[in-house]
Inverse folding.
């Protein structure tokens, strides 16, 4: 029969508006219907279906030349009770499920573009409802349904989402249909977003009970996990087809799926995607790490806010992975994120590796190593090996670590101590080996296994130690450096921490007692007001304005002289601003911006000059701008919220007049 179908030829029918019912006597249409019924209703139940794949290929070639047949096929699947569920979920033959999913996606791809012009339209259809009582007549009811048949079919597919939990060992092809549908184009992804696909998937993944439902069917057992590769891949496709928080002048993220239309992600979908519990669980379960990498790279590209959020999530999971045993998973996620090349790459590297700790920032890998090395040296050793892998694959990471002299030398010393302890253990086993003649064969075998494990452990540590030595030699780091500069920076960091803690306590106190508490003393000083003005960016003059000012004669007023004096002082301070900026370049991102600015001002630091020197550092420029706005807002709020201060300010203004 397959041979007969292959030999039959007919002219393509590519007109969408032809009703399939009008082609009931058409030989070509009869041929397509007969082949479909045989393949899906007879061959799928055969004991041996070796040529099923050939039938699917033949059906694909028939449907791509017959648009009315495509319409009939999707309607046939929807009208035949339980056929979609049977062939995509219930069927125990994986080859049958794969072939069915392949045919369905091919028909959707063929028919979809013909329905794009009315993709969001609806129509009213009449349906005859048979009465259960024979005495009563059947009635006709009207239903409003989507006009595109493709959309109606996908509604039927998504309605099986909850049922798929029962068939979790076989639902791979079900999610494959949805994933491949999302890949077809922006219209298809727009439909999925309108159905709340991210919310549906997040609810499905977390297994949260639905309304009036005690519990949901579990999609795993004690010994097996489901195959959610296409499930996570669907989320990746949908997210990468949407806009991100990146600045428009930077363009689109490299991972964007762009067919000419970039979709806005609905607020409800965004909330579900960035739910901390769901996002962390999705990454931790490691169902599809490449797809998860695509998601985090897409949302972090040129987006400082999402970069901070994702880095905090990954580093937080790494810090506790010595308990969860998920370190390789998060290492595989972090490495490509640090390799993402945009203006925030250095920010991500500093955040990921920094040895400093702060209440407002996640712990970097070096800080985690310092904290855990005495409690769990094995875990610290795993992190050291991972850092060395990063240095070989990422030149930006190697450049950052080449400046961390103290940390790299400490790692070398840690490995030396670990190597020494390993040698001592091996010597103990060697001494104890003289007694092996008096032991049983089982004890001797265990001793050999322990000796082999000890040798492997020593060799692995030796290789890591040599890699660290090589890195120190290539970067020119002296093994006995002068730590005066590092000590100075550390002391400055401690000062910043103290200022940050004081500021947090003060703000919390003011928040509770705002109406009755005066502003802090340093906010009442004249220097504080000048600092606030200096932090605000100066407006740039247009070319016409500059020419006008050059033509006007200077007016030597008292304000002009004061301004000139301040500009001279600023120029003098900016002479060493570059050097100070370089020293604090790595410390500044690790602390609260407001606390850092206060500490810098107390040290007579030229913040505006530093901002000019650091203009090429997007992250620091963003911090300076954000902190300036926060500082100005804090000063305004404190003054306005304090009646006594407001009255005093009014009296001062009256006196000035």
């Amino acid at each position: 029969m397959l041979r007969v179908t292959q030999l039959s030829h007919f002219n393509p029918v590519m007109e969408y508006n032809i009703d399939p019912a009008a082609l009931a006597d058409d030989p070509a249409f009869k041929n397509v219907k007969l082949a479909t019924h045989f393949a899906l209703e007879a061959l799928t139940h055969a004991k041996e279906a070796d040529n099923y794949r050939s039938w699917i290929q033949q059906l694909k070639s028939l449907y791509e030349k017959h648009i009315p047949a495509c319409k009939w096929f999707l309607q046939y699947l929807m009208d035949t009770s339980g056929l979609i569920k049977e062939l995509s979920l219930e069927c125990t033959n994986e080859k049958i499920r794969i072939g069915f999913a392949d045919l369905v996606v091919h028909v959707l791809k063929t028919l979809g573009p013909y329905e794009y012009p009315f993709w969001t339209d609806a129509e009213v259809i009449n349906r005859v409802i048979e009465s259960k009582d024979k005495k009563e007549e059947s009635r006709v009811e009207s239903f409003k349904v989507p006009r595109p048949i493709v959309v109606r079919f996908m509604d039927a597919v998504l309605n099986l989402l909850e049922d798929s939990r029962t068939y979790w060992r076989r639902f791979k092809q079900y999610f494959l249909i949805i994933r491949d549908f999302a890949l077809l184009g922006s219209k298809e992804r727009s439909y999925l977003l309108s159905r709340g696909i991210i919310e549906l998937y997040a609810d499905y993944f977390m297994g949260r009970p639905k309304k009036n439902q005690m519990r949901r069917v579990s999609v795993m057992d004690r010994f097996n996990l489901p195959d959610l590769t296409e499930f996570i891949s669907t989320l990746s496709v949908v997210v990468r087809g949407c806009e991100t928080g990146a600045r428009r002048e930077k363009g689109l993220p490299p991972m964007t799926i762009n067919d000419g239309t970039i979709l806005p992600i609905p607020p409800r979908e965004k909330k579900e995607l960035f739910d901390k519990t769901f996002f962390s669980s999705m990454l931790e379960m490691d169902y599809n790490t490449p797809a998860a990498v695509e998601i985090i790279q897409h949302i972090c590209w040129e987006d400082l806010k999402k970069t901070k959020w994702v880095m905090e999530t990954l580093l937080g999971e790494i810090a506790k992975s010595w308990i969860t045993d998920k370190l390789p998973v998060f290492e595989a996620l972090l490495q490509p994120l640090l390799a993402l090349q945009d203006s925030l790459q250095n920010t991500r590297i500093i955040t990921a590796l920094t040895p400093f700790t702060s209440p407002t920032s996640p712990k970097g890998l070096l800080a985690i190593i310092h904290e855990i090395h005495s409690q769990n040296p094995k875990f610290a050793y795993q992190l050291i090996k991972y850092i060395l892998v990063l240095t070989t694959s990422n030149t930006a990471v190697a450049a950052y670590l080449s400046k961390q002299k103290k940390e790299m030398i400490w790692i070398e010393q840690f490995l030396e101590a670990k190597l020494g302890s390993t040698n001592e253990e091996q010597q103990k086993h060697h001494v104890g080996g003289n007694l092996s003649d008096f032991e049983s064969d089982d004890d001797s075998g265990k001793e050999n296994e322990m000796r082999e494990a000890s040798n492997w452990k020593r060799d692995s540590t030796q290789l890591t130690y040599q890699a660290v030595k090589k890195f120190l030699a290539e970067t020119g780091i002296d093994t006995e450096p002068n730590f005066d500069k590092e000590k100075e920076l550390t002391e400055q960091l401690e000062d910043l921490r103290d200022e940050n803690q004081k500021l947090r306590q003060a703000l919390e106190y003011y928040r509770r007692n705002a109406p009755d508490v005066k502003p802090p003393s340093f906010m009442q000083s004249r220097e504080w007001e000048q600092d606030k003005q200096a932090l605000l960016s100066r407006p740039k003059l247009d070319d016409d304005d500059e020419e006008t000012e050059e033509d006007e004669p200077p007016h030597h007023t008292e304000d002009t002289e004061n301004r000139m004096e301040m500009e001279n002082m600023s120029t003098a301070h900016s002479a060493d601003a570059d050097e100070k900026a370089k020293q604090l370049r790595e410390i500044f991102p690790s602390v609260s911006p407001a606390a850092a600015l206060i500490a810098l001002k107390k040290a007579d630091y030229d913040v505006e000059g530093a901002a000019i020197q650091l203009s090429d550092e997007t992250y620091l420029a963003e911090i300076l701008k954000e902190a300036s706005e926060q500082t100005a807002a804090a000063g305004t709020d404190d003054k306005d919220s304090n009646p006594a201060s407001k009255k005093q300010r009014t009296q001062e203004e009256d006196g000035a007049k």
